[in-house]
């Protein structure tokens, strides 16, 4: 598969004003232009997982499995929401760890198409929706009675906002294991609109108990600089 992408180049400052990928001599796309990237089988994994050494999927999946173990839950009995499921790597990892059923959720229909194409059978269902508008998602997910949540990099920055995290957690019953990774720049508790403050509000309200909070290197930029995220592992209250 790597040979297929020999012409793919990573671009960043000073060549461009952000993180970009040169797919060929004639086409350059932003790293977060997911619809275009997902359209090419294996391209996202080649760029983000292999070239940029992204670890969030593995860290989030392992964190979720630890949470289930700490809570004395049998993974095979759980239906887990994979929020921001993308091409399905996190779902694949938690299924490999013994989780009985995973339901993917992503705001992009292109992500659903890529996951069903590249990882058929991983998800019991894959729902396209936005947790900022949770009513439709709540109805779509109701038949599955989700009992856990895992998310790798879906929250923060240009992705889902703190209210989306709160809405997603609200779908779970008390005592459900959760694990999510968020860019540490969005975890500053002094920012009332950030995720750090949102997590503190959830804890104070008894809606989330944090079992583990650790810093790790999420990936490197297209110019090789490290990007650090935080992993939050917990249970709903």
Walk me through what this model shows:
The chain has 237 residues and is α/β, with parallel strands linked by helices. 31% of the residues lie in helices and 28% in strands. It contains eight helices and ten strands. The strands form two sheets. The protein has a seven-stranded mixed β-sheet, sandwiched between helices. A three-stranded antiparallel β-sheet has the order 1-2-3. Strand 7, helix 7 (162-170) and strand 8 form a beta-alpha-beta unit. Helix 3 (56-70) packs parallel to helix 4. The longest helix is centred in the N-terminal third of the chain and has 15 residues, at 56-70. The protein starts with 8 loop residues before the first strand and ends with a strand. 41% of the residues are buried.
The total count of helices amounts to 8
H-E order: EEEHHHEHEHEHEHEHEE
The secondary structure category is: alpha/beta
In what range is the share of β-strand residues? 25-35%
Taking the alpha carbons of the first and last residues, their distance comes to 44 Å
- Enumerate the strands of the largest sheet in spatial order, edge to edge or round the barrel: 6-5-4-7-8-10-9
Helical amount among residues, as a percent range?
25-40%
Q: State the shape.
A: globular
| Gyration radius from CA atoms, angstroms | 17 Å
The stretches of 5 or more residues where confidence is low (pLDDT under 50) are none
Average of the residue pLDDT scores:
94
